[in-house]
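tool_call: predict_structure(chain=1)
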Amino acid sequence: MSRTCNDFSSLLKMKLSSITHSERRKLGRFDSPRPLAQALADWAIQKVGDQILEPSSGGGVIVKSAISRLLEIGSRHPEKQIWACDVDPRALTETAECARPHAPHLVLGNFLSLERSDFGNQMFDVILGNPPYVRLHTMEVEDRLVARRAVPSTSSLDAKASLWAYFPLHAFKILVPGGRMGWILPETLLHAKYGREVLNWATQNFDKCIAVSLRERCFESEGAKERVVVLLLVGAGGKASQGLEMVEFASAQECIASLPQLATTTASGLPQLNGHAVPHLVSNFAAIASQVLEASEDMKRFGDFADVKIGVVTGNNKFFILDNEQRTAAQLNRNHFERVVSKFADLGEMVVFSTKTFEKASKLDSKTWLLCPNPKSVDRRLARHLKTYALAAIQENRTMEKRSNWQVPVLGDPPDAFFRYMGKVGPRIVLNEAGHYCTNTIHRVFFNNGISKAVKRAICLSLHSSYSQLYAEFEGRQYGSGVLKFEPSETKRLLFALNEPLVDALSVLWLTFTKGRALVSWEEMVPAIDSAIVAYCPKLAKSLPIKKVRTLLIKVRQRRNSFYLASGT
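tool_result:
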């Protein structure tokens, strides 16, 4: 249900409390910087009679920018041409205040549940928005259902999509043929599967699609570290575009200065929408390197050799994962526990995790005890410990509530290896010879049956090479302040060099790295691994010289961590 608020003065008189910072985050509201919003409005609004919609108005910055643009090109009554919608009445109050002295049409409601009739049967020439940045796991069940119902029958948008991804698809239903849309979206658009699906949909429904990546974090002052992409869509319902055009700017100021020209110029094209965005934004050589790595006969997919799953999900690691002192204080017997690696940092700089190295970690008071008792246990001390967890908290915990015995996490088999799926540098893999479990802060790797120990070791080393680490930068998702993250599906798509002669060479290196000495840093292995790959994968080395790969890897990592600002050349 929606409610149209045409009485501007009555809205301003509403007795509403101010929105708090935590409420802003829950709603996914991060208001657009005014200069960027104005540049977006100036780009999109071309005719004095354009009808404009802002489907998630927030504080009204985009609405104010649209009013300013309409006045600039000669509109006498811009308020009659603008509709603004938001699910939060406080946001509409702010929009009304921001829009003074003009009074746009204001609609209170969840945009994804609204239809054309909720906007006076109006169709729009321009739709501009900065939709809520809300991830799937924080969305309410009803909001998920509403979002899924908003997806057009012709779309295959992933059910794991964040809330913002649904807005362009739903807005398209009330956009006139030939209309324009401009969206300020999180950089996830370029990395996540559902982001690529949004881009694919856009290229099928617009004459021109331009993704403008900003290295500057526009919302950092509001507590959001994720970078943004401005998605510009021109010519709704026309012929499908030839592809997605991509361009990158170091700062919002550069973007603002360049937006007016983007509708008529051609940026670097992305050849395949299911390809990787990052290399095309870095340089031509990066784009070539990505293609060469994927085409090389010496490069193998990790998923062809192993399955990848998230670690053990306890529902509350603070309760289920204990260190030696905590277990002793609770007076709990050893047989109520399994051994566990609670965080990847406990593995140190090793490439193999053995009982010996685990004992060393235990002495450092790491949390290595996973509570997993027999549900039929009659141990009174155990019962006393379990009662410290409130019944109401168990019922509210989705993970525990699903288990037939809330106190028994589902373990499965111990993994063959541990995979670090999130970090500032790149992915790492450590073989698990101790046979222990890991929490969901680490991915579990299960090698296919029949793979020899020598091949497992070779894969472990090869994944640390400069070639693999570079490809990981293209495959992974970038989050927050430069963190690189891999879902299990993305981990399985990683590439590494492997052939029979290389397995033999890496087996020798394995003995060198693990024979009685601790590594100062796992990166000290990389030059020797790279040299082996160059020697036994000559075609790959000729196509991608190792010196250029290392230089490019540094450049890509610096870009991700905001030390390097891509020039686009």
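agent: The longest helix spans residues 500-514. Proceeding to next step.
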